[in-house]
Amino acid sequence: MTTAVHELPRIAGELERVRETTLELLEPLDDELLVAQVSSIMSPLVWDLAHIGWFEELWLVRRDGEQSAIGLDELYDAFRHERAERSSLPILRPAEARAYLEGVRRRTLEVLEDEPRDAYLYGLVLQHELQHQETMLQTVQLSGVAYPAPFHDDLPPSPEPEDVLVTAGPFTLGTNDRLWAYDNERPAHVVELPAFRIEPRPVTNKRFVEFIEAGGYRKRHYWSDDGWRWLRAERAEAPLYWERTDGGWQRRRFGQREPVPPDEPVMHVSFYEAEAVSAWAGKRLPTEAEWEKAARETGATLGRVWEWTSSTFSGYPGFEAFPYAEYSEVFFRDEQRVLRGGSWATDPLVARITFRNWDFPQRRQLFSGVRLASDA
Ligand code: AVJ
Ligand code: FE
Q1: Model confidence pTM above 0.90
Q2: CB 100 within 8 A of CB 46
Q3: What pLDDT score was predicted for residue 156?
Q4: pLDDT on residue 153
Q5: Closest residue (by CA) to atom 14 of ligand 1?
Q6: 356 Cβ inside 6 Å of ligand 1
Q7: Backbone angles phi, psi at 326, to 5 degrees
Q8: Is the CB–ligand 1 distance for residue 254 below 6 Å?
Q9: Is any atom of ligand 1 closer than 6 Å to the C-beta of 357?
Q10: Which DSSP string do the residues of 359-375 spell out, in sequence order?
């Protein structure tokens, strides 16, 4: 799919918009934080930054098989080194990384003008940068530094929801779109589901506190075997960043302590906690097929928190890796759980109904919450 001339201004505009957001996101942070290994499960922020440029160079500038000019493949190919090792590699310093991104961008725009690459490659690179923005915000939150928390007041209160019935019958899961969709969203295929019920909104903090006060973190029967093992090892008593005080539950959000806002969706819960709160409510997690059908037929509230589903990450029937197996295929493993919907930190270019996110079930640094389903 080559790029039509009339598409060029939109592509150039999106490249600029997304880059501005990346730089704005890092702007308030000093170099010391940018190079720090904040957590063993995250890259140093300056690695994410240069990796964004490296990925752009790979897909939008370099010719097939061409090496990166200054040997950056060894440093910025995500499969060469674990995240925890990256701060001890000779990675670019913040000023060098910024200069590298600028240089790549200059060449990207030249190529775009002279001999544009296939349109989907621009979509790939834009979405890649946006996904790393969300990853970087997770790292900033983990670091605990004071940071102008974005979008905080945009979350409207969500009153406790009623169930919505989704009637039995076939629907189309996934898409055949080849412009914006990732390989793991294809091919579209018909799935037949029994009727089920699903809540129209994610579980709120207020409801999650009820779960905690009901002994949710102490009662074995709410937890799966793996979940209970995780709970014992982690000694979790509440979502990540929460703390019980004399004045009630507080949380740390981008360096600020604040009372947990009762009407916001609960955030920073693992898959295991999502399962447990479901069991406490007498419900269950939706499968990702149920999630997508409900989103199509009932109009979901996308973009508040990522929602854990009960599905493990795998290829749809007829899946073909494209354009590289390391985006999705190497993660098709039973231990990876699918999350759907998108969080407040997810750009609309990424948060589409068919988009599939995934992570290990124990992860809580994600802006992750939970929505409850049940059999009809
Ligand atoms: C889709 C968020 C799981 O961060 O591992 C970024 C996105 N892939 N660079 C990840 C991704 C390659 C991916 N997730
Ligand atoms: Fe990446």
Answers
A1: yes
A2: no
A3: 60
A4: 47
A5: 357
A6: no
A7: -80, -10
A8: no
A9: yes
A10: E-TT--SS-EE---EEE
* Residue 78 alpha carbon to ligand 1 centre in Å: 10
Pick from 120, 101, 13, 99: which is nearest to 51 by CA? 101
Alpha-helical runs (H) found in 182-328? 205-213, 225-234, 271-280, 288-294
Q: Which of 178, 41, 184, 55 is nearest to 128 (CA)?
A: 55
pLDDT tens, position by position, 113-160: 999 999 999 999 999 999 999 999 999 999 999 998 765 444 566 566
> How far, in Å, is the centroid of ligand 2 from the Cα of 132?
7
With a 6 Å cutoff on the Cβ, whether 358 touches ligand 1 is yes
Distance CA 137, CA 367 (A): 9
Residue 131 Cβ inside 6 Å of ligand 1? The answer reads yes
CB 183 within 8 A of CB 322: yes
Please report the sign of the dihedral spanned by the C-alpha atoms of residue 245, residue 250, residue 256, residue 261.
negative
CA of 52 to the centre of ligand 1 (A): 12
Ligand closest in space to the Cα of 51: 2
The whole-number pLDDT of residue 162 equals 80
- Regions of the chain with pLDDT less than 70: 1, 65, 69-70, 150-161, 300-301
Ligand nearest, relative to CA of residue 52: 2
CA of 343 relative to ligand 1 center, distance in Å: 15
